[in-house]
Amino acid sequence: MPARVLVTRPEPGCSATAARLAGLGFEPVVLPLTRVVPTGILLPDGPFDAVMATSANAIRMADGSGRDRLVDLPLFAVGAAAAAAARQAGFSHVIQGPGSADALAGEIAASIGRPARLLYLAGKTRLSVAEAMLETEGIAVTVAETYRTVRIKLAPGGLRAQLGGRRLDAVLLYSRLAAQAISEALLDPAAAELAKGAAFLCISAGVAGALSPVLRADVRVATEPNEEALFSLI
Q1: Which residues pair with residue 123 across a beta bridge?
Q2: What secondary structure letter does DSSP report for 214?
Q3: pLDDT category, 125, cuts 50, 70, 90?
Q4: Measured between alpha carbons, how far is residue 11 from residues 16, 22, 78, 152, 197 in Å?
Q5: Rounded to an integer, what distance in angstroms lies between the CA atom of residue 134 and that of residue 37?
Q6: Which DSSP symbol is given to 117?
Q7: Whole-model pTM?
Q8: How confident is residue 139, by pLDDT bands cut at 50, 70 and 90?
């Protein structure tokens, strides 16, 4: 039987990841534990020399009229998903980065002149290392937090019902919130029994650290914070 993999990321990424897993011969179990919502902020007028985006959601959730004013600027995207979202939004000059915010900041610093003003499309929950790196390089960064991530509250027994009485082999975790949510869901002894022996595959060390200690018997952390590295752990 194919390995069963629980996918916890928010939609629309959850279904896309599930389809990819199915194509690779796994049996995905779809259970988003978080969702993304727009903050509703208006993007600043600028002027800006370039745009940086470290997630596809940051682009999708940006206010449309403000985003339309930016589409002629170079947009530095953290990876393939963000680059695709940028092109879909109408950006004509998209530079796809290597998959991590820090590495993307390095590429930006190496490729744009000084002085420079950069608009950073981001979520409310993020590490600030990349923007600090850019500021150190003499690039003025304006952060626009276009979305936030919130937990989806599971009904009692919700995880157990989704699993249909069959065991899991692995759990994909993309955020600290999802790690906290799965830790709480597995307080249900019946659900915990179905996840016994499952590997918890985390996109970063921070996500792994948010898991309950009782779930850390088999925790694996991606070498880079992207789905390609996460899939290599399965």
Answers
A1: 147
A2: G
A3: confident
A4: 8, 17, 19, 12, 27
A5: 27
A6: E
A7: 0.84
A8: very high
pLDDT at 110 over 80: yes
* Bond from prior residue into 28 cis (ω within 30 degrees of 0): no
Query: Are 203 and 173 contacting, i.e. CB atoms less than 8 angstroms apart?
Result: yes
Which pLDDT value is given to residue 226?
83
Q: CA 194, CA 212: separation in Å to the nearest integer?
A: 17
| Coil/strand/helix, residue 173 | strand
Which residues does residue 219 pair with via DSSP β-bridges, in sequence order?
A: 200
Q: Two tokens at 54?
A: 């470290």
CA 206 to chain centre: 13
Q: Which long-range contacts (CB under 8 A, 24 or more apart) does 185-192 make?
A: 185/33, 185/154, 185/158, 185/159, 186/159, 186/212, 186/215, 188/156, 188/157, 188/159, 188/160, 190/157, 190/160, 191/157, 191/159, 191/160, 191/163
Half-sphere exposure of 138 (CA within 13 A, CB side): 7
